[in-house]
Structures are given as C-alpha cells and as structure tokens.
Amino acid sequence: MAADPDRLRSAGMTWEALAGRLQGPMDARAWQSVIPSMGYMALLRNLRNFDESGVPDEVAGQIVAKLTDPGEVARSRQLPFRFYSAYRNAPSLRWGHALDGALTKATANLPSSGAARSSWSTPRRP
C-alpha cells in the first residue's frame, strides 16, 4: 500500500492517516509514498523524521527543491522562526542550506517595520 503515491493521494490518504494505519514509526518507503502530496509546513516539520527513517538523498533533493522554491515559500506564509526551529530540530546538515535559503526568502516577504507599525496603530481619539 505505501509504495504508490498516486493511489494514496487519490484515496485521500495523508501522512498522518498513513502513520496511524501503520501503527508505528514510518519507514523510508512509507515516507517516500506520501512526501509528494505533503504540504510545505508538513515537510518542514518532518525533516527529522525523514532523516531518522533513512529517506534517500534523491527524495531529500525533491524536498529541498520545494522548500527553497520562492513561490512555495511565499505561498507557505511561514514565519522565519519556523525555519530556525526546523534547523534546530533536524539532525543532519543536509537541510541547512535549504533552510537558510528559505529563511532568507521568508524574511523578504515580511513588511518593513514602518508598514508593520502603521498597520497596527490605533487611531487617536479626538
């Protein structure tokens, strides 16, 4: 069951549902079958699980491509601390460069301090 990503996707099987169905830690094969359908935040939060299960470098490269894609970073609307948190929690360094690049792209999406202040200011009472 875990080998066919298209079949899992068409069945609406998420990584959380697959993990529950397997009733134990997911191995590299299980992760490989759901990674193509995982969202940005799910990928970011599971880097350690990918490493611990032994996901191959080829698959890690696909994850890195998604994490560093400027459009994906912008659509993800992740705050910069999410990338730092992922960096601190991922045991291998194979994610470091990608997370640094994504963090840089995410900070570029933040409003300037002047814009942030003006959007949070409250009107004065007369």
Automatic annotation (TrEMBL):
Superkingdom per UniProt: Bacteria
An example molecular function term from Gene Ontology annotations: telomerase RNA binding
GO BP field: telomere maintenance via recombination
Domain TROVE: 1-115
PANTHER family: TELOMERASE PROTEIN COMPONENT 1, TELOMERASE PROTEIN COMPONENT 1 TEP1
Protein name in the entry: TROVE domain-containing protein
The organism's taxonomic lineage, starting at the top: Bacteria, Bacillati, Actinomycetota, Actinomycetes, Streptosporangiales
